[in-house]
Amino acid sequence: MEAFVRLVIAGLMAGSVYALVGLSFSFVYKGTNLINWAQGEWFMLGGFVGFTVLEVFHFPFWSAIVIAAIVIFLAGFGVYRLLVHRMVQRGAKLLDVLLATIGLSILLQNVAMLIWGTSVRSVPPLLKGTLSLGAIIVPRQYMIIFFTTVVAVALLYTFMQRTDFGTAMRAAADNPYAARVVGIPEHLVNATTWGIGAAIAGIAGVMVAPIFGAYFFLGLTVGIKGFAAAVVGGFGRPYGALAGGLILGVVETLGAAYISSAWKDGFAMAVLVLFLLLRPHGLFRAEAFD
Amino acid sequence: MRRLALEKLNLERWVEPARRPVRYGTLALALLLPAILAGNNYFILVLCLIGIYLLVVTGLDILYGFSGQVSLGHAAFFGIGAYVSAMASTDLGISVWLSMVLAVIAGVIVGAILAWPSVKLVHHFLALVTIGFGEIVRLLFLNSREVTGGFEGIGNIPAPSVGGFELDSYSRYYYLVLVFVVAGMVVKRNLRNSTWGRKLVAVRENATAAEAFGIPLLSTRTIAFAISAAYGALGGALYAHLISYISPGSFTFNHSTLFLTMVLIGGYGTVWGPIVGVTTLTLLTEYGQRFEQYQGVFFGLAIIIVVAAMPRGIVGSLEDIYADHLRQKSHRGGRGATVVATTEEVDDG
Hints:
- The complex is a heterodimer.
- Chain A is an all-alpha fold.
- Chain A has a single domain, classed as ABC transporter involved in vitamin B12 uptake, BtuC, CATH 1.10.3470.
- Chain A is built from 11 helices and 2 strands, in the order ααααββααααααα.
- Chain A has helices spanning 2-32, 39-56, 61-89, 94-116, 140-162, 164-174, 176-181, 186-212, 218-233, 238-258, 264-278, and strands at 130-133, 136-139.
- The relative contact order of chain A is 0.21.
- In chain B, helix 15 (313-331) runs antiparallel to helix 16.
- Chain B has helices at 2-9, 11-36, 41-67, 74-90, 96-118, 123-143, 145-148, 170-193, 195-205, 207-212, 217-243, 253-266, 272-287, 292-309, 313-331, 337-346; strands at residues 161-162, 165-166.
- In chain B, strand 1 and strand 2 form a beta hairpin.
- Helix content of chain B is 78%, strand content 1%.
- Chain B has a two-stranded antiparallel ribbon with strand order 1-2.
- Chain B is an all-alpha fold.
- The interface between A and B is large, with 44 and 41 residues.
């Protein structure tokens, strides 16, 4: 029983990473009706920015988070302005943008490989050591990630529902034409959405880098799992990504422990495929049907 | 300005009579290449690979170009074909030809099973299902060690023979590949102009309207998936018996994106598109190994540029320019009017 509880907690901790990346997918989808496949790559780049700031310049951890957030926000913003904006104006559909961002993801992966090499770069944690709750031991860094995720979900939800910008964002996604008519700078809002979405994944990357290390290939696995988290929770819902990520993390950890550790990555894929095929709305309702 | 200049060129006087010679000229060149390159074994191996990829990509194009569905897991069908044929011919000792047939059957079954529930999904979600599917299949190859040999893969896969004549050299094998490629392309071309092909295109253009005309979405899309998977599995089987060694490393997500890049760069929905896309990219990867570390950067950029600026690919864009030119002519009452109709119907070289 104790081992089981320990596994569930480990799963929740791993799941909070997927939840954060899933949240970034959901946020971009909710705000612009588009999928940016390169979200996993923003996560990966966040890790490398963290590595560079901490290990090369020896700045404190909080500055790594701020710098990664700013740099990756600008990257996401830039990708929308320079690439996606033009595509959308020429009538590109979600599928075209998805394919273009797959190209972007391959490009970013290889650029990262050229800059930082093919080895795993280790990054020092924000808080060292572990926290013991009775018999259950959790690394402090994981606790921080878990709370970051919960806070990020709550903040984004409030941001979307309560602020003018959030309202403008939802308006631009619901009806771009009507949004322009009432004076919302639709393209600026969309670019900012892509920027914020990228920054969320980037922050996740910095936070997780002390655990996974910074590695150029990390974006693909984390990206797919984050996406699966968003799908399980119902694509486009902030709380959905949180629930989906946590469920995915627990399923994966329990599956690896009790069934087969070689299939660890397979469980996430299976959950993704099964959900899309059998319950594309996710656990809560969202729009995945034609 | 550009259009005016094009009009003066009288393109159709060159293009229409050139279609047939170009088609048969390419075929003749393909037939003669091993003789021209006698001795350059590596190049003939690359030619075999081009042919095999051409089959896979032609199949993927039937799915994407005709029915508009995207597969980002086509390396899985390629792998299923390779593994089924390899296991049947080594472990079970079945003849190579029968193994290949089994491989294609396995591909069709898996393709149909994957397609059957996913036909209701929006296309981009389908694309993501196929990513998950591809990864699961790769893990299956990797983790079922007793059957697939796990990480080490399967070796000593026999080469096929025709009536005692062993196809054991690259140039002999090349002709086998060529037969399949030509057959695969003829089937694709005829499919495009058949009732089924038109149904597929109708479903791609407007699923609701197509359904209203009585075209069954489920079976149409499932069949597109199954045919596409059959091409992929056949390519995989040919690959296994050519290289005689397979391992999970040859059937990754990167291979799936490579196949899709080939379709996109060449131009979807055409016969020439895959030829252009596969040949350029295979030659680039095989002969650009000196620049291996920049290959990924190039592929990424190529996908972005083609999708964003040239959505119809190289061949598709050329066709568009030509069709545009003819349309301009016909508006002026030129004799292009009838030609427009035929090129749009046939839609290939």
